[in-house]
Amino acid sequence: MSNITPPPVGKFANPDATVVDDPRLDPRIKTVLAMVDSFAPGLDTPALNIDYETCLEYANEFERVAALSHPDLLANMPEFTNVNSSTEVIQGVDGNDINLFIHRPANMDGPLPCIVHIHGGGMVIMTAEDPNYILWRNSLADAGVVVVGAEYRNGGGRLGPHPFPAGLNDCASAVKWVDQNRSSLNISNIVISGESGGGNLSLATTLQAKQDGWLDVIDGVYAMCPYISGVYANPPVELPSLFENDGYMLDMNTMSALVTVYDPSGENLENPLAWPYYATTEELAGLPPHVISVNELDPLRDEGLAYYRKLLAAGVPTIGRTAHGTPHGGDAGFPDQAPEVYADAVRAVTGFAGSL
Q1: From CA 165, how far away is CA 175, in angstroms rounded?
Q2: Which of 34, 153, 338, 341 could form a disulfide with 334 if both were Cys (CB 3.0 to 4.6 A apart)?
């Protein structure tokens, strides 16, 4: 056994590889990605050499470019005739208004699980009104749960600039409102779920709830491809996927710039409420059941798996899930091209909520 060397994969096999070159990629997803020139505006200067204002401008441009596809996505949005949608405006702990987008099965029969959905975007860009998040919330509701999407303040973009902990405060306010309105929402339990930056905020909100003494309102957490380490400017060897899949839709330099937008002073780089990767066993102990879902071809894969192992070590009931053949967020990102993968992700999230 000592003479067996695992074959190199990703950038370890070919430093010049892109995600579409990787033989592990689902060929249906490859067809789509091969037609995309880039996934984010270029950032040639190392993020460590860029000041906060420049990083903020970059984040704003990133959001603008990402939104170029929104008109087509909205025009092709499926009709969800079995889902009723509404909007509620609540006040956050900082006195700000927070929009909550509520999606419910049209024919609710008795209390249903509720998923508080927190959208991705590195905590600094994107919005809950983006068509891909509308589609995801509708898909979950169509599968038989109540979904509440939180429009939290971003570190950048049109909902910014509001650095940490503004977005976290808004997510906590949203979960507390859902708890206080269990009866009118007709819900049986509360699960927090999100992807990427939303995965970060799902985990961080739960840590905040424990710290502040209201953990009992959260019945479970389902974090997808969580963006939780913040170490992208100087990545550690114990997170090899940051090297293996660097540039596969996400790259370390881009993520480093977004870290600066989220925490301009850098004083929270090891604060688990900003970067849950740093949570200790003591801070994790007693948390509700978790699912940590990662993507095989994601730079963030190994930090998610590291958190999964930390939860297990702390005695938290936890499931680890890897969506093979998919890049960052790919199990929820290609509903038309890989419908079975998308449907499986919907079943996994709603099934977890229904099991609690």
Answers
A1: 16
A2: 338
Helix (H) or strand (E) holding 201: helix 197-212
Are 109 and 166 a contacting pair, CB within 8 Å? Answer: no
Terminal Cα distance for the chain, rounded:
42
The rounded radius of gyration (Å) of the Cα atoms in the chain is 19
Joined together, the tokens standing for residue 21 give 């070159």
Angle of CA points 239, 245, 248, to nearest 5°:
140
- Residue 243's nearest CA partner among 5, 12, 1, 2 is 12
pTM exceeding 0.85? yes
pLDDT of residue 2: 64
Give the per-residue pLDDT at 43: 80
Residue for token digits 């401008």? 57
pLDDT digits (tens, 9 = 90+) for 91-139: 999 999 999 999 999 988 889 999 999 999 999 999 999 999 999 999 9
User: Measured between alpha carbons, how far is residue 9 from residues 12, 22, 33, 232 in Å?
Assistant: 5, 8, 19, 20
| pLDDT at res. 47 | 77
Separation of alpha carbons 156 and 55, rounded Å: 9
Span 26-63, pLDDT tens digits: 999 999 999 886 677 878 777 778 899 999 999 999 99
The rounded distance, in Å, linking the Cα atoms of 294 and 131 is: 22
Name the nearest CA neighbour of 333 among 190, 151, 196. 196
Question: Nearest Cα to 149, choosing from 119, 179, 181?
Answer: 119
Interatomic CA distance for residues 146 and 90, integer angstroms = 18
Q: Residue 246: CB partners within 8 Å, gap ≥ 6?
A: 11, 252, 299
Give the model confidence (pLDDT) of 254-294 as tens digits: 999 999 999 999 999 999 999 999 999 999 999 999 999 99
Which residue reads 């505006």 in tokens? Answer: 41
